[in-house]
Specification:
single chain; 212 residues; alpha+beta; seven-stranded antiparallel sheet; six-stranded antiparallel sheet; 2 helices
């Protein structure tokens, strides 16, 4: 004779926890932060102190919802994304930030992507590179490390907390874009905390009933 199988009721607190987690997971995806990384082997000087074949890394954080575009030629656009001050790491000189707020741009018409300083008259380019894939890129999605077909010389002086950086030559330039995990909103974090508290409360109550 087969033993009877009894269904165990799921505690109400656990049901609330599961429902709440499901609701959080089902929240619609929205535009969010994206990181743009520029790297290269560069020569030049910082406040007159020369360097040769130093590794330069520039990290800019923007938001895909801030990307704007304008048509250059039919089917080719220029995309801009303001990224604020960018992080600068130059081997031999340490880490710092740009003095001014910059923007990342992609000029599809000539397949050039780079960093630009709008505060300088004429919107000075800080670090540019060219690759065929930039002809269709719009700054809104991740992009695997993309080596430059050829580097594009920077114009003028790049002002940073490390000093004024002048780049006279560069090689092995690479651009990468990747989504940046967003920090949960306070309301979302509070809701999740409440749900977890209710769930733990249900578990503790169940243990007390077993011990009674």
């Amino acid at each position: 004779m087969r033993p009877s199988l009894r269904r165990r009721a799921i505690p109400g607190a656990a049901l609330g926890l599961l429902a709440g987690l499901a609701a959080l997971a089902a929240a619609p995806a929205q535009a969010g932060p994206i990181g743009y990384t520029f790297t290269g082997t560069v020569s030049g000087n910082v406040n007159g102190t020369a360097f040769t074949n130093a590794t330069l890394t520039l990290l800019a954080i923007g938001d895909t919802s801030s990307v704007t575009s304008s048509m250059i030629t039919p089917g080719a656009f220029r995309f801009n994304n303001p990224v604020g001050k960018v992080s600068v790491v130059l081997s031999g000189f340490g880490a710092g930030t740009s003095t001014n707020s910059l923007l990342v741009f992609d000029n599809q018409a000539n397949s050039i992507l780079g960093l630009q300083d709008p505060a300088v008259t004429g919107s000075q380019d800080v670090f540019d590179l060219s690759a065929s894939s930039f002809a269709t890129y719009d700054l809104k999605s991740s992009l695997a490390p993309t080596p430059a077909d050829f580097p594009v010389s920077t114009l003028g002086v790049f002002q940073t907390s490390l000093g004024a950086i002048t780049i006279t030559s560069s090689s092995s330039d690479t651009f990468t874009a990747a989504a940046v995990p967003a920090v949960p909103e306070a309301s979302t974090t509070a809701s999740l905390g409440l749900l977890l508290a209710l769930g733990m409360g249900g578990v503790l109550a169940a243990k007390k009933r077993k011990m009674a």
